[in-house]
Amino acid sequence: MAPKMTVLFVIFLHSYVVLASDPDPVKDFCIPNTGVSSTILPCKNSSLATVEDFVFSGIKHPGKFSKTGFSAMAVTSSVFPGLNTLGMSLVRADFDVGGINVPHFHPRATEIAYVLEGRVYSGFVDSENRVFAKVIEKGEVMVFPRGLLHFQMNVGKSPATILGSFNSQNPGLLRIPNAVFGSEIKEELLEKAFGLSAKEIGKMKKRWPGFMIRHLIPLTRWDPPVVGSIFLTRWDPLVVGSIPLTRYDLMPFLPLWCSASPETHPLSVTMKKLDRSSDTIILKRLMCKAKGRINSLSLAVDQLDDG
């Protein structure tokens, strides 16, 4: 009797894991109520929703290429409120000629990549270290299973564009070079693991700095820092002049595309309008450095990238 019960339990557990995903919505939609000072935003009254809550124009144009020839603009409920509670998000990825999307994975989502333009060498590695890769062209689709390492490279003679769709509102992203060399793993361990000298490890750390984002909170005042999980929500930005400033709590080693409030930290960047019909802004790269933790740096972030 015991062996049968064990088999049934294993089958049940496997089914539970397979079916796990973002919670099913209990309403037609849930536009975040940004007027509530909470890190978990409830839905506003559905009668107050407008068509603008369900339309997003921030990815009509490509972003600025990083040093790897890659640009990514994520679309989550933090910028597109109509996605809230629907269990999905997307990203526009652009590749310069020869550009790459470094090996990375999404711990909470499967991704479907659709090629809008160009020829892109795409693939993933399974848990047995088998590589599944080929060149996909305009109109073709490839799927990257949840949690598996995957990568992309433009092998065409012109820029390429991919639209990626995720089955999670918050898919997560871990880029392998940044996660390994940009984190605080002891250098001695990295030297032994990769057979590199301390000097070589130092070069890799400079090339692949890491970043950490603490919980994003609705910004209505300059208040103490908060500690939370990596999760993005929609917010009511505080406007200084014509620049919306959004509050993040950060660790001192991050590279970000950011705009800093002069009232909270002596940093500045050059900004360029991406689309006159929207509030989307491209921000040049800024290295935010400090000896200790940055407690109250206010940022307007359009995209996070490795370059």
From TrEMBL:
It is found in: Secreted, Extracellular space, Apoplast. It comes from the Eukaryota. Gene3D superfamilies: Jelly Rolls. The keyword Manganese applies. GO terms for biological process: plasmodesmata-mediated intercellular transport; regulation of root development. Pfam families: Cupin_1. Mn(2+) binds at H104, H106, E111, H150. Transmembrane segments: none annotated. InterPro entries: Cupin_1 (IPR006045), Germin (IPR001929), Germin_Mn-BS (IPR019780), RmlC-like_jellyroll (IPR014710), RmlC_Cupin_sf (IPR011051). Oxalate binds at N101, H106, E111. One of its GO terms (cellular component) is plasmodesma. It catalyses: 2 superoxide + 2 H(+) = H2O2 + O2. Disulfide bonds join C30-C43. Residues 1-20 form the signal peptide. One of its GO terms (molecular function) is manganese ion binding. Its main location: secreted. Residues 57-202 form the Cupin type-1 domain. CDD domains: cupin_OxOx. Keywords: Apoplast, Disulfide bond, Manganese, Metal-binding, Secreted, Signal. Monomer. In the absence of manganese, it forms tetrameric and pentameric forms which show superoxide dismutase activity. May interact with bacterial adhesins thereby protecting the reproductive tissues from microbial attack. Has no oxalate oxidase activity. PANTHER family: GERMIN-LIKE PROTEIN SUBFAMILY 3 MEMBER 3 (PTHR31238). Belongs to the germin family. This is Nectarin-1.
